[in-house]
Amino acid sequence: MKADLVVVKKSQYSLTLMKGGKPIKRYWIALGSNPKGPKIRRGDKRTPEGRYLLDYKKDESGFYKAIHISYPNLADLQRAKALGVEPGNMVMIHGQPNYATEDQTAVQNSNWTNGCIALLNQDMAELWELVDPGTPIEIHP
Q1: Residues 103, 13: Cα–Cα separation, whole Å
Q2: Which of 35, 49, 67, 109 is deepest in the core (most CB within 10 A)?
Q3: Domains in the chain, ordered, with CATH?
Q4: DSSP class of residue 21?
Q5: Is 7 helix (H, G, I), strand (E, B) or coil?
Q6: How much is the pLDDT for 138?
């Protein structure tokens, strides 16, 4: 059963797949090393907050599978322009680094990404099958 919405609650370190308004699967996640608040600029180590699309899948990257989040949206671009900063880009949901040892792929430190949302590899493999490009994602504080 494919998800029709992905809901991330940063404060709870959870990513929930939804179908027809009902949760179908929940995962524990890691975030950027500066997780509180929305992403403002490139390099701030924050995960964006708002509504985006999961717009494409990337199976060859430095991590075990990756799904791109359509950050920045128009509001993010306007905020960055007003502040005179670069908003950043290439925010993904992904698994563990490809160079990780077997022990590291089974246990994940919290808040180790540059602003992406990270899952354990076995969870990322499931998510990969349950989410199609075009699925909306809501990222809440």
Answers
A1: 21
A2: 67
A3: 5-140 (2.40.440.10)
A4: T
A5: strand
A6: 98
CB atoms within 10 A of CB 15: 23
> Is residue 24 a contact partner of residue 18, using CB atoms and an 8 Å limit?
yes
* Contacts for 70 with CB less than 8 Å, ≥ 6 apart: 52, 53, 54, 55
12 neighbors 92 (Cβ within 8 angstroms)? no
Structure tokens of 70?
């359509």
Confidence at 60, pLDDT banded by 50, 70, 90: confident
Model pTM above 0.85 = yes
Token pair of 25 as six digits: 């699967």
User: Please, are residues 91 and 125 in contact by the beta-carbon 8 Å criterion?
Assistant: no
- The identity of residue 101, as a single letter, is T
